[in-house]
Design goal:
globular, 6-stranded mixed sheet, 13 strands, Deoxyribonuclease I, Chain A, 7-stranded mixed sheet, about 400 residues, 8 helices
Length: about 400
């Protein structure tokens, strides 16, 4: 069973990357002077990452640079979109009461800030990334960080949450979505945790969760009636999270192919790819080639998959699977990297993808873009939340469900 239907191959010649990967505040000035009023395309690199942390509170000394800033990423991304699942245990108290556990949320954001803004050891250049929004719904957290000089070009920032858990509405499963405009291009990022379960037919629950998120996620239209309100209305869309799709194989066969690192054979029986090819879910979406080991399920703080240690007895065995995925929709995104990190805090490994995004820019700094940008800078105080750090909170909004 082939996988080409799930891979997007954008011609590199159509994506002009020479100077746009490190575009600075003057990126709307360093545009050729011909056709000075016509839109111009620039390019920014986006890091999308997802990690199910299994309800484990991170230690203060946890270093997540291995995941966010691996040595082979050069230059670093300009935008980081980081999704977490199970940042709190999914017990009745956290699900029904909708406990915000703000301290856990702030702890993860503090670790992100430290990882992104530490000086680059190669050249000792300090980065300056700022959190523009951080939203938690029960165990799901979506945190978006942007290089500080790009903040002035962001507008129409908003968030939408959908609960798909118990009774079809509680937040133990579901999604947190964020949308904004960068220059004249709209972005939407979806972080989800879909229904679990390895039994035959459980994939249909996950399909239903995905369909419900697509239909129920709605953003405010803003001051203009033609602004986008649904996920697929946006120009660039990336979906990340613990999608929970498993592998259609007996455990023994899965284990054998895993030991031989026969990823292509295993992926022929990957539920997400099968459901997509049969037209049951995510029609028109794309995923990059998977050349890494399944991200689930490990013993915590171990290299061993759950059930593979003969010294430990278990009531039920859970076969490894690529539960954690990153997919995208539409044109204008070229995926340059898709792999996983090796942090061992939980029973999942984090995954990451690097995209080059095409962005439309108006050449006239006094035009429509400037009109809106000037107004989004002046956010009212009730949308702001102060943090005890050295960074301005003007661009950081923290909403709680």
């Amino acid at each position: 069973m082939g996988s080409n239907n799930f891979i997007a191959d954008i011609n590199p010649d159509s994506m002009e990357m020479e100077t746009m990967m490190e575009s600075r505040p003057s990126d709307n000035i360093n545009i050729s002077k011909k056709n000075s009023t016509a839109p111009q395309n620039i390019y920014h690199q986006i890091f999308a990452g997802s990690w199910n942390v299994g309800g484990v509170s991170p230690p203060d000394v946890l270093d997540i640079q291995e995941w966010l800033r691996p040595n082979h990423i050069n230059p670093p991304a300009n935008i980081y979109v980081l999704g977490f699942q199970e940042i709190v245990p999914l017990n009745a108290a956290n699900i029904v009461v909708r406990s915000e556990n703000r301290k856990i949320c702030e702890k993860w954001n503090s670790l992100i800030r430290a990882a992104l803004n530490d000086p680059d050891p190669k050249n000792n250049i300090t980065q300056d990334f700022r959190c523009i929004i951080s939203k938690q719904m029960v165990g799901i957290l979506l945190s978006v960080w942007v290089r500080s000089d790009l903040c002035q070009y962001i507008r129409q920032l908003s968030v939408s949450c959908v609960g798909c858990g118990l009774m079809g509405c509680l937040g133990n499963k579901g999604s947190v979505s964020v949308r904004f405009w960068l220059h004249e291009t709209s972005f939407c990022f979806v972080c989800s945790h879909l229904a679990s379960g390895g039994k035959e037919g459980d994939q249909r629950l996950r399909n239903a969760n995905a369909a419900g998120i697509l239909s129920r996620t709605t953003f405010p239209p803003g001051p203009f009636p033609n602004f986008t309100t649904k996920i697929l209305d946006h120009d660039r869309v990336i979906w990340l999270g613990d999608l929970n799709y498993r592998i259609y194989l007996p455990d023994a066969t899965t284990q054998y192919l895993l030991e031989k690192q026969k990823w292509n054979l295993l992926l022929e029986y990957d539920q997400l790819k099968v459901e997509l090819m049969e037209g049951h879910v995510f029609e028109g979406w794309h995923e990059g080639v998977i050349n890494f080991a399944p991200s689930y399920k490990y013993y915590k703080n171990s290299e061993l998959y759950f059930g593979c240690d003969e010294k430990r007895k278990h009531n039920k065995r859970r076969a490894p699977a690529w539960c954690d995925r990153i997919i995208w929709f539409g044109k204008g995104l070229k995926q340059n990297q898709y792999d996983r990190g090796e942090l061992k805090l939980s029973d999942h490994r984090p995954v990451r993808a690097i995209f080059m995004a095409e962005i439309k820019v108006l050449r006239d700094p006094t035009g429509f873009q400037s009109f809106l940008s000037d107004r989004i800078i002046c956010l009212p105080n009730h949308f702001e939340e102060c943090f005890n750090d050295k960074y301005s909170c003007k661009w950081r909004s923290n909403f709680h469900y």
